[in-house]
Design a protein that fits this description.
The structure is a single chain. The chain contains eight helices and no strands. Helix content is about 55%, strand content about 0%. Helix 1 (about 20-35) runs antiparallel to helix 2 (about 45-55) and helix 4 (about 80-100) crosses helix 8 (about 150-165). With about 170 residues, it is mostly helical. The radius of gyration is 19 Å and the shape is globular. About 10% of the residues are buried. It folds into two domains: about 5-80, no CATH class; about 85-165, no CATH class. It has helices spanning about 20-35, 45-55, 70-75, 80-100, 105-110, 115-125, 135-145, 150-165.
């Protein structure tokens, strides 16, 4: 189980572990924000990318293929939505916290592939609402809280403390 949950920074976002994944999003957000605020120039992007990967993830980028060019989003004109990946992770923490309160033995059910109760909970609490609510209102309806990082951080801490015996 530890092997598939190994935490080690990677150069490629889609290959990142769940602990360091959001650092990839942070890097992209910081670069996009600086670019749109005219604080940096397009020609400087590879150098800035490489420096951020060194500073934030401790990784040395050797070339643009494993650096800036590995991400096709910008080349396709897709800007401004990277933070939504992290917001989804934050929501998942709040949803899991609510599931824990409502679905008895949820971990065992997942481990044995018995997902009927969890699917039913999701249908009732999430899917049945479609787009009746905006995301923040729906997460508050589900969890009783405004969006908060604490449940997601708690999930990561609890999972990895157990896996790494710390």
């Amino acid at each position: 189980m530890l092997f598939i949950n190994h935490v080690k920074p990677s150069k490629i976002r889609i290959e990142a572990d769940e602990v360091t994944y959001n650092m990839h999003i942070l890097i992209r957000y910081q670069i996009e924000a600086a670019l749109f605020e005219n604080k940096i120039e397009v020609n400087d992007l590879p150098e800035i990318w490489n420096q951020k990967y060194a500073d934030i993830l401790g990784l040395k980028i050797k070339n643009d293929a494993e650096g800036l060019m590995q991400d096709s989003h910008w080349a396709n004109g897709y800007y401004g939505y990277f933070p939504s990946y992290t917001i989804g992770n934050i929501y998942s923490g709040q949803i899991l916290k609510a599931i824990k309160k409502s679905v008895i033995n949820y971990k065992n059910k997942i481990a044995f592939g018995e997902l009927a109760d969890i699917n039913q909970w999701l249908k009732e609490k999430v899917h049945s609402h479609g787009s009746l609510y905006d995301s923040n209102d729906l997460i508050k309806k589900i969890s009783g809280e405004n969006i908060t990082t604490q449940p997601y951080l708690h999930y990561l801490e609890e999972k990895y403390r157990e896996l790494y015996n710390i």
